[in-house]
Amino acid sequence: SKIRMNKVVRKNLRVRLGDIISVHACGDVPYGKRVHVLPLDDTIEGITGNLFDTYLKPYFLEAYRPARQGDLFLVRGGFRPVEFKVVGVDPGEFVIVAPDTVIHCEGEPVKREDEERLDDVGYDDIGGCKKAMAQIREM
């Protein structure tokens, strides 16, 4: 059978549209005690104000979102979207951000490495090009 996932999830899993993957249940994922997230530097240029109040608090509030160290996520708030990177979680590798989870966002913004922006339009966003894209990927 098939599943659908948004661009952010595909990016974190490092898969593309049409890739074949295996999905397995992840047993009891604990509620996080602490999660440390930092913005990507090129997405906060010119933004003033409190990133936590404008972006992170509304994003995580009562949402019970999963978090894994190294994940990127996009938050639409204020006047434009900001990308964040999960730089640490406690306990373990995977957590659910619950109402009692402490969200840290102190620190220098993360420099974008080789990752493309999550809000950029890519070939996967353009419909009707399956055969052409398959040929390009073979090259």
TrEMBL record:
Signal peptide: none annotated. Pfam families: CDC48_2. The keyword ATP-binding applies. One of its GO terms (molecular function) is ATP binding. Transmembrane segments: none annotated. The keyword Kinase does not apply. Keywords: ATP-binding, Nucleotide-binding. Gene3D superfamilies: 2.40.40.20, 3.10.330.10. SMART domains: CDC48_2 (SM01072). InterPro entries: Asp_de-COase-like_dom_sf (IPR009010), Cdc48_dom2 (IPR004201), CDC48_domain_2-like_sf (IPR029067). Residues 46-112 form the CDC48 domain. This is CDC48 domain-containing protein. It comes from Alexandrium monilatum.
